[in-house]
Specification:
With 197 residues, the chain is mostly beta strands. Among the domains are: 78 residues, no CATH class; 36 residues, Laminin (Ribbon), CATH 2.10.25. Helices cover 7% and strands 40% of the residues. It has three helices and 18 strands. The chain has a two-stranded antiparallel ribbon with strand order 1-2. It has a two-stranded antiparallel sheet with strand order 3-4. Strands 5-6 form a two-stranded antiparallel ribbon. The longest helix has 6 residues. It is elongated, with a radius of gyration of 25 Å. 25% of the residues are buried. The model has no long low-confidence stretch (mean pLDDT 87). InterPro entries: EGF, EGF-like_Ca-bd_dom, EGF-type_Asp/Asn_hydroxyl_site, EGF_Ca-bd_CS, Growth_fac_rcpt_cys_sf, Nephronectin_domain, NOTCH1_EGF-like. Keywords: Calcium, Cell adhesion, Developmental protein, Differentiation, Disulfide bond, EGF-like domain, Extracellular matrix, Repeat, Secreted, Signal. Belongs to the nephronectin family.
Length: 197
């Protein structure tokens, strides 16, 4: 089977037919499926969509059970956790619904971990890290765009001279470079390439 546009988070099952991995949707399986919007709802109380998955958490006064349901808990109500709690060896601890969140100084509310500045993010050399609340994602570096080339998705250099997105002077020629471009004044003109006289 050949899928001309590729299957980003899935596998090719027939001519241009993708079977998406759980948590993904779309013709090329390139979109995250928002499980929180599904019927029946996957979580009893609150749901947080994550890339390719989701996390359940409970309202204050409830404890998250292993099956994703919320059980009433007087101990949780006393602790006043933002996202529910769990009991570990008789001790009540507040929970955060994502590994990209951590308990704040008050040990009750969750604050975001900036994986990008903390160096915890794993992005390939030609991608940059974008922090989100509770997580992060990798985006092509400036001057590159995501394209499906020879069987996989990759960040490919944008030729600003062809796409006409350069800012070269009318009397300059555009020279494409990896991730950027240069401007050179034409013969008989001089200047930076952005200004030619």
């Amino acid at each position: 089977a050949v899928c001309g546009h590729g299957c980003k988070y899935g596998e090719c099952m027939g001519p241009n037919k993708c079977k998406c991995f759980p948590g993904f949707t779309g013709k090329t399986c390139n979109q995250d499926l928002n499980e929180c919007g599904l019927k029946p709802r996957p979580c009893e109380h609150r749901c947080m969509n994550t890339h390719g998955s989701y996390k359940c958490y409970c309202l204050n006064g409830y404890m998250l059970m292993p099956d994703g349901t919320c059980a009433s808990s007087r101990t949780c109500a006393v602790v006043n956790c933002q996202y529910g709690c769990e009991e570990v060896k008789g001790e009540v601890q507040c929970l955060c619904p994502s590994g990209g969140l951590q308990l704040g100084p008050n040990r009750r509310t969750c604050i975001d971990i900036d994986e990008c500045s903390a160096g915890k993010a794993v992005c390939s050399y030609n991608r940059r890290c974008i922090n989100t609340f509770g997580s992060y994602y990798c985006k092509c570096q400036l001057g590159y765009e995501l394209k499906y080339v020879s069987g996989r998705y990759d960040c490919v250099d944008i030729n600003e001279c062809v796409t006409n997105t350069h800012r070269c002077n009318l009397h300059a020629e555009c020279l494409n470079t990896e991730g950027s471009f240069k401007c050179k004044c034409k013969q008989g003109y001089r200047g930076s390439g952005f200004d030619c006289v």
